[in-house]
Amino acid sequence: MSGHVHIVGGGLAGLSAAVELAGGSERVSVYEAGPACGGRARSYLDRHLGCRIDNGNHLLLSGNPAVYRYLGLIGAQDTLVGPGRPVFPFVDLADRLRWTLDLSRGRVPLWVLSKRRRVPGMRLAELRGLLALMEATPDMVVSDCLQPGSLARRLLEPFAISVLNTMPDTGSAALLGAVVKESLARGGRNCLPRFPAVGLSESFVDPALDHLSVLKAEVRTGSRVSAVEMTDGSVTALRLGEERIVMGPNDTVIMAVPAPVAASLLAADLPGFSAPDEFEAILNVHFLLSQVPVLTGGLAQARFIGVVGGISEWVFAKDQILSVTVSAANRYATRDLDELAAIIWNEVRAAIDPAATAPLPVAMPPLRIVREKRATFAATVQQDRLRPGTRTMAPNLLLAGDWTATGLPATIEGAIRSGHAAAQAVHARRGTSGRPK
């Protein structure tokens, strides 16, 4: 009783579902509205800089199971690189202090006993904040859990902002706690920093498209679904402009588009549909240097540094590109971008120069600013309650995306998990088994 699975959206959620289903008994088609797949996790040629850049920075961890399952299926598990130890360099610009968080490999957090390996100035009593996050109830915000002190200011608050893309006074403690449980609580072996050796597309998108092509799955870019027709509670057709794709009795639709797009297509006709409707921006600034900087110490090992006490949050060294991420960027929405770029460049110099064999130029180099106004849903208590599950009231309609109820914030890991969950729901509907875990 095979059918045709129509996946609307070619981001990582949609690609994950397609990879899980392709090669089985189902026909698989992916419809991507844009010119390329990948969503927020893709690379492109920037004509102003004259080089290829990622549209955003994503720091992954060795303990992200869905990420590594997906990469394994598409043969790209070796395209992520990173240090051989769970090390995270930091600089506090306000105090001109530098350190490297050096986690223990096992579950026992021996790192907290060493002043050389832990956050400077932290007190052991502050670790109660980590326990509080892991025990947080759904109605708690991050700031409810944190103990005042250096651990919160120099690690947990920046960690919360980057993971949730939401400020600690409104961000969901339960969502952050879920990440802590899957990373810090499992020990340093699960916290090895990982990032693409070349680019996001080279790791997550291009190998997936090659894999799907070999398995005869159809991927259509530039194919925007403009309407979803429903009759008697089921999807009967998809409209792509003038084209109308009629659903067969065994066909399934997986809606793997951003939350606002899903709401515009489904909310009027799908009983019980809900989705997050508040969003946070992410600001990325890519600086192109005239030559590759020679780095030393922990920065040379990790190839990134966390920044405390400034606008910048993370600086990634990617050959000649120094790429900066600013999360929860709604707070800077009214600031002039050129002014922000100048401030950020000075912060980059302060972060990088002490660990480089030669100082960065004082004059700001060529740059590209990418402001994603709706990068993720706002990971607040209220918005988390609006996240829907995989299944809907329509028996042949499933949902996927990092905005669905994955139990995680809007992350690559969550997006890929949602696609896997949708594929599993297709198999459950058919009474078939999916790929082995």
UniProtKB/TrEMBL annotation:
Question: Which residues belong to any copy of the Amine oxidase domain?
Answer: 12-426
One short Pfam family name for this protein?
Answer: Amino_oxidase
- Superkingdom in the source lineage: Bacteria
Kindly list any coiled-coil regions of this protein. Answer: none
Q: Which GO terms describe its molecular function?
A: oxidoreductase activity
Note the SUPFAM superfamilies from the entry.
FAD/NAD(P)-binding domain (SSF51905)
Q: What is this protein called?
A: Phytoene desaturase
Gene source species: Komagataeibacter diospyri
